[in-house]
Amino acid sequence: MLNSILLDGLALAGAGIGAGVAALAAGLGIGRIGSSAVESIARQPSESGKIQTAMLIAAALIEGVALFGVVVCLLIALA
Amino acid sequence: MSLASIGSFAAIQHDEIVEEETGEEETVFNPGEMILHHIADSHEWHLFTTETFHATIPLPIIVYSAGKGLSVFSSSRFSHHGTYNGYKIHHEHIYAVDSAGNEDASVKVYDFSITKNVLSLIESAVLLLFIFITVAKGYVKNKGKAPSGVQSFFEPIVSYVRDEIAIKMIGPKYERFMPFLLTVFFFIWFNNLLGLLPGGANLTGNIAVTLMLAVIVFIMTLINSNGYYWKHILWTPGVPLPLRIIILPIEIIGMITKPFSLMIRLFANITAGHIIILSFIGLIFLFKTIYIAPLSVGFGLFMTFLELFVALIQAFVFTLLTAMYFGSAVEEHAHDDHDHGH
Questions:
Q1: Average pLDDT of the segment spanning B61-86
Q2: Which of B45, B94, B120, B268 is the most buried (most CB within 10 A)?
Q3: Measured between CA atoms, how close is A42 to chain B, in angstroms?
Q4: What tens digit of pLDDT does each residue of B274-295 get?
Q5: Which of B2, B10, B164 is closest, CB to CB, to A16?
Q6: Is the pLDDT of residue B319 over 90?
Q7: Domain enclosing residue B63, as ranges
């Protein structure tokens, strides 16, 4: 009984930590993309449209990987 | 943003466990149950609840099981008796019951009901057809002239999707993909917005819906793929022979993960947005005080405005990545210096 509660708690803690790490990594990645995009637009304001599209694609790919992590954490938390 | 909600999910689950042990179901407000109830599909369309009154729209239930055949009845039958016609509903799952009223797990029940999400899907299809037939008629009528009415709003968006997404990502063969790209874009955008309305169904946050969208994208990529695409996957140019053992499975897995990430991205973004808004509103009921209301309504309003933006961004990203996958499928050997697919 106590053992199963402990195990559930550990699983939930794992899910929480996993989600936190995923958020941290995605935040770092998207932050870097954002900062480089702003820098490039400041250098080449005329190319801002192209830079924005490239930025969105890169951000979407990073977010996709982060969301894989989140879904695994959700499965742990809900199962 | 979408990631922050998972922590609250863990807390929610914990609440449920504690509650089951103490058995106080009526008095304790359970935020997890409230949130899951709002984002999940349901056999009735729940609008609001007061102390004495549940405002719900009953929806048709269509079930088939081997013994009883097809039966069609209103979902309000369940709320009166709990069981009806040999069927019982428990946590939005319909079971067959035996004569004593117990769940009979041996009978397989096929549930084809018009649920909240199905109804909302039909609703949005009718809305999209109505709007875009009007726009298309306007285009035919005002050919060569300035657009009028609702056409003035949608025509710039259509040409944006064509110029910025289809032509840039697919290249000269963009034309045959335009109907699909526009349908996907407007379907996702409209349903994201409809989901944000009070009482709206969370359709694009339903993983079955996003799965079907991703499967359609995958099948269309395969149908339209040329020899160059397959050569790139099966016999990647310029790779030394020992490396091919590693590259080949990675490329084949890569084919599957592209639509898989489309599915997860849309589902997780929209669901997480709904969970965050509901968590802020749930704080009022959790603390049982009105003084928290300005804070949670303020944050809820801010998140709702952010979600209006996310609704558009997710529709755009889904269409953009779809166009990229189509582009890599129809790409010719001539411009392999622009490697869009990776």
A1: 79
A2: B268
A3: 22
A4: 988 988 888 888 888 888 889 9
A5: B10
A6: yes
A7: 54-114
- Whether residue B9 and residue A74 make contact (CB cut-off 8 A), yes or no, is yes
| Residues B221, B198 share a domain | yes
Q: Which of B76, B95, B114 is the last residue of a domain?
A: B114
Q: So what's the pLDDT on residue B2? A: 42
| B235 half-sphere exposure, CB direction, 13 A CA radius | 3
Neighbours of B141 (CB within 10 A): 11
Contacts with B, A 32-51, CB within 8 Å: 49
Does residue B89 lie in a domain region?
yes
For residue B214 the two structure tokens come to 């991703």
Higher per-residue confidence, B44 vs B10: B44
Rg (CA), chain A: 18
Residue B9 lies in a domain: no
Residues B71 and B151 in one domain: no
- Helix, strand, coil tally for chain A in percent (to 5): 95, 0, 5
Answer whether A15 touches B (CB < 8 Å).
Answer: yes
Note the pLDDT tens digit of each residue in A28-43. 999 999 999 999 999 9
Whether residues B145 and B198 share a domain: the answer is yes
Query: How many domains is chain B built from?
Result: 2
**Closest partner residue to B3 among A56, A60, A66, by Cβ?**
A66
Say which CATH class A2-78 falls into. mainly alpha
Are B198 and B273 members of one domain?
yes
Based on the domain organization, do B143 and B106 belong to the same domain? no
- Domain-by-domain residue ranges, chain A? 2-78
Same-domain pairing of B153 and B104: no
Q: Which residues of B touch A78 (CB under 8 A)?
A: 9, 13
| Residue of chain B whose alpha carbon sits nearest to that of A5 | B17
With a cut of 70, say whether residue B35 has pLDDT above it. yes
| Higher pLDDT pick, B46 / B100 | B46
Helices (runs of H) and strands (runs of E) counted in chain A: 2, 0
Indicate the angle between helix axes B150-160 and B116-141, nearest 10 degrees. Answer: 100
CA A37 – CA B297 distance, rounded (Å) = 33
- Asked if residue B123 and residue B108 are part of one domain, the reply reads no
Model confidence band, residue B80 (pLDDT cutoffs 50, 70, 90): low
Asked if residue B152 is part of any domain, the answer here is: yes
User: What ipTM score was computed for the predicted complex, to two decimals?
Assistant: 0.72
Q: Please answer yes or no on whether B10 and A67 come within 8 Å at the CB atom.
A: no
In angstroms, the CA B59 to CA B22 distance is 35
